[in-house]
Amino acid sequence: MRFQQIAAASKILSSHLPRMRRPNASRQVSSVASALKNSPIFRTMGLIGGKWVEAYDHHTLQVNNPANGELITEIPFMGTLETNDAISAASEAFKSWSKLTAAERSKYLRNWYDLIMAHKEELGQIITLEQGKPLKEALGEVNYGASFIEFFAEEAKRVYGDIIPTPLGDRRLFVLKQPVGVVGAVTPWNFPLAMITRKVGPALACGCTVVVKPSELTPLTALAAAELALQAGIPPGVLNVVMGNAPKIGDALLASPQVRKITFTGSTAVGKKLMAGAADTVKRVSLELGGNAPCIVFDDADLDVAVKGALAAKFRNSGQTCVCANRIIVQEGIYEKFAEAFSKAVQNLQVGDGFTEGVTQGPLINESAVQKVESFLQDAMSKGAKVILGGKRHSLGMTFYEPTIVTGVKCDMLLASEEVFGPVAPLLRFKTEEEAIQIANNTKAGLAAYLFTKNVQRTWRVSEALEYGLVGVNEGIISTEVAPFGGIKQSGLGREGSKYGLDEYLEVKYVCLGDMNRT
Ligand code: SIN
């Protein structure tokens, strides 16, 4: 099966959907955009073997601001040839990069981290410009993204092997850890920086080289980060960036025997195709796919903590994260009180352009994202659910959507069975702990889950029973570079971040040294 076949279902391919124009785009945003264009980190070409390059046929693709539809710039529409050259460059660079000591690679990564932090403001602005999230949240993403580079710069020095006690006196047994080789990294638009650094940081630390294909919706952050990697002295070919024709780039990465690993964050549909496509050359895969996060609020929860946690877990990035609370499952004794307090909190969320002070909810990424939200809501309402807040496009137009709360949601509604990826909070009701666990686990997804309770025994019982890779207890934001991030079931394979994140980029080699008794 080929990457090309799944274009329609893919998050990473949605770049080809048109974005509506909004005639009265704010002047403030336009001036940020023109100032950024003069920045040395504002790059608009692909990076292959240390050189900034156009698409070989000079075709381009537009990058637009989702908040006002304005054209930001054009980027190369690359495909098979450019990807193959990027793979060759990465393969060539691997020969020397993998031979450096961990301490040497660590220095390069540390330089890169320092430069990212020194350009935090500009990077944050680029994220807001092309992705739409509020600037404060974008600056938070820069910190988060940079933290993976810093963490893996340190962790690079701790890739230990083993000596195994030998069962035969004349032999010695060793385990070496070695880099897997060239890595193809396919990344999404919702975290244009952090999803790249979470992959490239550990890959480079281990001695791998990388070809990144960022989302065509948000390539400018990736290119700015790559420019900073060059400034940090990371040698040509170690980090390459190609973008444009996603199916062709994906196919080239899958087909190449030189690419030894694919790492992907995005939709489950695309992840499955990549996994199937990687079989031909038996590549390793790490997949961070969609979620359907339950957020369970028990009667014994602290109401304020639960409201604050659910708000953060649901409305971060306007509901556009794989770990966003997708189903808020509330026990009957606290249901009405929670619904009322949660509505009050959600009413305070300010929707608008991410550059406007005080805005907490930016636009959705594109028109098809809004249409998905609308169709899910329609489905829920036709089956008896009730909108108690929001429920329609925001008066700002474009892809702005009102923060929405829906009550009376049932498991058979799309809002509960699929990931809405937008600012809609469906509330479901339950009676017993067993029922909550049953509802929570009744999904193919298994990325993040949240629970709110003051009962310590329940915390353990429920955390252990939840079929999820990540569990937040009395906390709505749980992502950090020091903890393993990843899902079970159809939410993916492998872990990112933390010491476990390194294993994804390492081969384990056993060496048996024989004939020790010979003199
Ligand atoms: C994601 O949405 O894929 C990542 C979210 C996170 O890192 O917290």
TrEMBL record:
Signal peptide: none annotated. Gene3D superfamilies: Aldehyde Dehydrogenase, Chain A, domain 1 (3.40.605.10), Aldehyde Dehydrogenase, Chain A, domain 2 (3.40.309.10). The active site is at E288. Keywords: Oxidoreductase. Residues 52-511 form the Aldehyde dehydrogenase domain. Pathway: Amino-acid degradation; 4-aminobutanoate degradation. PROSITE patterns: ALDEHYDE_DEHYDR_CYS, ALDEHYDE_DEHYDR_GLU. The keyword Zinc does not apply. InterPro entries: Ald_DH/histidinol_DH, Ald_DH_C, Ald_DH_CS_CYS, Ald_DH_CS_GLU, Ald_DH_N, Aldehyde_DH_dom, Aldehyde_DH_NAD(P), Aldehyde_DH_Superfamily. Coiled coil: none annotated. Pfam families: Aldedh. Belongs to the aldehyde dehydrogenase family. This is Aldehyde dehydrogenase.
